[in-house]
């Protein structure tokens, strides 16, 4: 039988007569059977008839993208304005409270320890300093137990009970009233706070917990504080590495430099120079320039700090000359902050004052401030360093131990903030996106500085009291987005003045899903790293420069956590948001060009109240704007809205559209019920669930089996978290939209690969004209065993009149597979291979397919994390997070077969881990291949020599995304390497380069460090103050 099959394939290939009739028969029979089942149980044909434009109650409209994005920008601007007003009220209250307060060094008052409240001893009594307070879980505050009437004060352990702290805590209690009032005015507010320049932190509402070690080490004077308190700055850090800096002094110096780097933000620029008798740039390729102080660059320099060693003599004069020259030259390019300039000098002493250098480069304007840090306990050369600081508008600090570093470094910020304080400019600062420590949600913060308004002395006019602010969950931005008007693949996103993503569906800030850990560089992902097809940064630069316009390009978007990729054409509409640095919002409209509008009466509300109907959360009525609405479900809120009793709850048009969808899809309830009652049609309970979803967020489900008999829930965990919300449609909906109308897309959900129990099938209901606009997707979930049985039954059919088939899937010499258009196996005789990529199982066949007609591309992930082991070289890294697929670059096109451009990924196929030492997660760039095919290829045959002859045929299953593959397995091809998508880390710098290409890699890494993308400088700058 095998010989006949091999001869048949060879003859067919030689004569180019096509696929064996038996295989065509099998594919046709299975395709017809499975489509019949899918269409019947999904109700797709019934629903297609219901959505027809000719009815008077229905009209089709084209979306005006420019108008849409401008309206969205206005809504976001209003939201930001309300948050800024709440912050300004805190500023006014704090300055007034401080003005009225008279410092008392002996001030004492009662207080409670927030960590101990409601704690009791063994006898049931409150512990000392504990007290009893009402704390209630509040879902608005990540379900933490809070008290909405009080704030809590946190004091870092290194602050102790200083008089300044005691007085500051006392007068800042006046903020409690404003905290409460702000929250009553705007119930969407979350955490509000005052961070004192003295180090204490007042937060509303009451919530504070020590870390896992029982320590409260948080210092509120972090990047958010610094960004609000100071203007942007260019900084050169000079580090003394002469022989006298050996040992502990060099260790303290490294820590001092690292702490200085912690105070720099994305609007700042810096470089580090080590000096003895010579000048040594810590990063040699960045000589004579400055780089942005983003997380990546600062971490890169920190790695080089460990390579510093002390020897020789220190010639500070030439180091100061180099620093002044860099600052002057870089300022003239206009690429830096073009605001404040400073030189940080970390040394154990200076033998002279170097007034000749200052006179030449810095006097009389004194635009560059000097901040000397004297390392060690000796003070022999302290006077010279103090003079340098005072003569150049700086500040002198002495650091004797590692414990002194943090507090002494922070002192320079008071000097840098003085011009802003004296100008009395309460600049509004919006931070980059960050992950809330109280939960996994992304946040931004609006902050303003608080100044002393006391006029006892001229000096007091320049005193910074602290910073007030409020946190804004980025999900609040998402609630403003008209999701139903963006289409299935559409989304909105915003960026900061530096081009970093504030919100975007491809931003992946977390890894290790169960633990929700933050990635190191998640807050500085550039727009160009996710909208990578815009190779010239046209879209990015237009948004950064606050323009309004449109842009269009072909894109490839990943779905299913990077395992699949969809090819689309996106139209972008962008504009600026006035009053904020979030310089743009863009809408990408995949299938959002046209949409239905339908008119229905209020009486039709009953169609929304059916048990099979569900609505997307927080989409239609924002029930959080008023406290009395928070108990309402979406359907209850819509009912009040439509009856006129709550006329201002939300978008009237959206509510009408979802009501229209409920009416049009209502007949499916009766249709599905009829199928469920006729048990003879589903006697083996192979079909378990039918479901549908509309672009307005309405969904319906029907169970054909009892809930406790379900093999698997058809919604993945990811779908449950965001079904129809913001930028998210379920995967089955997105993939159905890309299918040819009238056909079904089948897949085994990756979330069920462990038990491999179900198959999903879905199709989109579209306008049957040139306006490609899927408006509803329907589908079903069936048992995998049921699906496979239908396949094997079809494969038993025979074209021979005598019933003796020339080939059979039951033969030991033949392997039969059913794969989807991404190359994943749905049916195979070896059950353990179900769900695997075909190239892992039949590598010889896949290699031949690559040679015969498909094409392969290389994709890049610039948000990956690699696992680096202690004591290992860079080459010992392994990929840890293959699903954070964000930036994709097509660099290699090799003509291949027919798997639609869907990348896939299996964590089991990642680079093998090595159990050596302790692993550290480090950012890295990775590359991996994806397999793509053309829809025009329906069938093919092939031969391959492999210890004999390997022959195969591949035949498309009609009306589906599936292919049948029949392989002659008599040849031993076990030595053929598997075709995988293993990610590989891109190594830009190789240790001890000895070849030309290694030097080229080093040059590439240097070019990446030097490259500066367009950015919009902050509009305010306060560099000087009077003597």
From TrEMBL:
It comes from Hippocampus comes. It is found in: Membrane. PANTHER family: VOLTAGE-DEPENDENT CALCIUM CHANNEL SUBUNIT ALPHA-2/DELTA-RELATED, VOLTAGE-DEPENDENT CALCIUM CHANNEL SUBUNIT ALPHA-2_DELTA-3 ISOFORM X1. GO terms for cellular component: voltage-gated calcium channel complex. Its main location: membrane. Residues 1-15 form the signal peptide. Residues 234-416 form the VWFA domain. GO terms for biological process: habituation. It holds the Pfam family VGCC_alpha2. Belongs to the calcium channel subunit alpha-2/delta family. It is a single-pass type I membrane protein. It comes from the Eukaryota. This is Calcium channel, voltage dependent, alpha2/delta subunit 3. GO terms for molecular function: metal ion binding; voltage-gated calcium channel activity. Residues 69-104 form a coiled coil.
